[in-house]
Every structure is written in C-alpha cells, then in structure tokens.
What does this fold into?
Amino acid sequence: MKLDFSQLNKQTKQSFNDQHSVIKKVMQGKIVTCEQCHQSLVLITPEQSEKPGIGCLKGCTFISLEFA
Ligand SMILES: [Zn+2]
It folds into this structure.
C-alpha cells in the first residue's frame, strides 16, 4: 500500500506536521486517541469507505488520505 501525502501539503504547515505524525503512528500500529472523544484513531482503507483516511469512529477527527 502506497500513500500519497501531496494532499496534506495543501494545508497549513503546522497541521501538516501534526497530521503527518499522527499518520505515522497509526501506520506503525501505535495508539493515537482523538482529542475530542478520546477514542482511538483507526485507518480507513479505500475498501472500507469512499473517503479513506485516518479518524475516530465518531468522526470528530478525520485526516483524509489519498491511496495511490
Ligand atoms: Zn473523536
């Protein structure tokens, strides 16, 4: 599986760095919790949803990812 991070570059640098570290941790299998609901963030693959990315089940945190 290859990830395209170019979409993230369009956002602010601060949030890009934050999102990048969250993505890295989740991809490494580490537990990252949502700041709002404190549930663990999970990887949503293109097979699971039309909008793949990383987010919590409630949807208050969502980082959209492009899968190449
Ligand atoms: Zn949440």
